[in-house]
Amino acid sequence: MEPLNIRKHMDQDLGEIRSGMMRLGAMAEASIRGGVAALVKRDRSEARRVIESDDEADQLAGWLDMSCLEFMARYQPLGADLRAISCAIHMAVDLERIADLGVSVAKRALKLIDQDPIKPLMDIPLMGERVCAMLDLAVKAYLNGDEDLARELCAMDDQVDDLQDRVERELLMIMIDRPATIAQASALGEVARVLERAGDHATNLGEHIMFMITGRRVKASQFRRPLGDRS
Amino acid sequence: MCQMEESKVVSKGLTLYYGSVPAVRNVNLSVPERSVMALIGPSGCGKSTFLRCINRMNDFIEEVRVEGQVLIDGQDVYGPQTDVISLRRRVGMVFQRPNPFPFSIWENVAYGPRLHGVKDRRVLDEIVERSLRGAALWDEVKDKLESSAMNLSGGQQQRLCIARAIAVEPEVLLMDEPTSALDPMGTAKVEELVRELKKSYTVIIVTHNMQQAARVSDRTAFFLMGELVEEGPTREIFTSPRDPRTEAYITGRFG
User: Fold this and answer.
1) How far apart are CA B79 and CA B88, in angstroms?
2) Do B251 and A78 contact (CB within 8 A), yes or no?
3) Which UniProt keywords apply (chain B) (predicted)?
């Protein structure tokens, strides 16, 4: 039996949604990477670039949302197509949020630029790296339909959480030791929390992708270590 | 299957041959009472043939041989004790194209009950009204019950055929692509009706329109080349089918 002609149109439209998602993934990653770089390198122009590029991510996320709605209206998809569209709608929301969180980091970087650093930043850049690695895995898992990569990405959130813990603890010690640093230390703590949230959104991506691939709703927590078992 | 006790219609190892060619092969399927089961699959997959086994419509075709069982309330419809006339009263059928008799609307609906011996005009009037209401047609035709059924629109004619089918108070309603000849409005009305009918009847509907199956049915069975490939809750069949052949069919990779 021959594939139907309409199938070609569906695959073409799905292809456009996928490449849009790839671009949005890259934008979210660039936003986090840029936000953290602006903070670490005290780079005002990089922070501005991140803040300005957010409109583009918003527009692309809106385009993806509309394209998914149009796909549903036009083809009334079922099975794998339906799951792909459901996944795309959810992913666009999470990726757009991650891009927003990169902007939050960039805005805090702008505030901190003129202050003397209370400490060299080690773990915050590592958190940014981990979140970017998760986004990279998400895009690859989505494009290749790779369930293992999606699981791997969910498990990585533990590392982001551990780093955030470490950052908060270290900042607390600094604040106790040098109360004059409280303002800057709390701002850095906020940055760590923002990155932790970005990790959570990246984990959501893993869940959406696993649903797309397997048809089963899974919670990322089953690929992570048990609660309360922070090392 | 797990819901055997509540099943209204059960087929066990049902195989149907046209001559020596099997058109339906070893189908095991349970249809829960007061639910809608959709049968989907490409043309020639055996779904309509299977549907027609349930009220022995295939008896009319020469060279047809049936093996296995179709049980309604546990009784084999192919068993020697089954009276085909009373079977068809218990298992009504609605066809692809509306086929009203060339009589008045009233006579179309009263036809079955009269055949089964109801003579009292008052009783017949009640049955006609109840059936037309049941088929969501009463309000549209109550003032012209004596006019010819042939003057109704296609969608109205199909609902009249449904009224005619339910007038004899069947337990099971078989529908063979009941909306394929209707426009979207007629289709919408029949679909709405199907959802309503399942409160009183067990409905088995063959449809080529997967969105229709998704809209009206509780469970869906996918047939391919005479075999039942997969059956399950409609929600699961259309979001996460287990068999790759079902997936390929519902995503239009063949058809």
Assistant:
1) 14
2) yes
3) ATP-binding, Nucleotide-binding, Transport
State pLDDT tens for residues B125-178.
999 999 999 999 999 999 999 999 999 999 999 999 999 999 999 999 999 999
Beta-ladder partners of B221: B39, B231
Using left for φ > 0, alpha for ψ between -120 and 50, and beta otherwise, residue A54 falls in alpha
CB distance from A77 to chain B under 8 Å? yes
What average pLDDT score do residues A6-24 get? 94
Q: Is-contact B9 B202, C-beta < 8 A?
A: yes
How many angstroms separate the CA of residue A201 from the nearest CA in chain B?
A: 24
Best to test chain A binding among B222, B224, B240 (most A CBs inside 10 Å): B240
- Specify whether the CB–CB gap between B207 and B177 falls below 8 A: yes
Residue-wise over B105-122: b if at least 16 C-beta within 10 A, else e?
bbbbbbbbbeeeebeeee
Domain B7-251 top-level CATH class: alpha beta
Residue among A27, A28, A51 nearest A39 (CA): A51
Q: Rounded to two decimals, what is the model's pTM?
A: 0.84
Q: Where are the domains of chain B?
A: 7-251
Which of A2, A80, A216 comes nearest B251 by C-beta? A80
pLDDT of residue A1: 52
- Tell me, what's the ipTM? 0.75
B241 contacts chain A (CB < 8 A): yes
Tally of helices (H runs) and strands (E runs) in chain A: 7, 0
B255 CB neighbours in chain A (<8 A) are 1, 4
Q: What is the pLDDT of residues A93-129, one digit of tens each?
A: 999 999 999 999 999 999 999 898 999 999 999 999 9
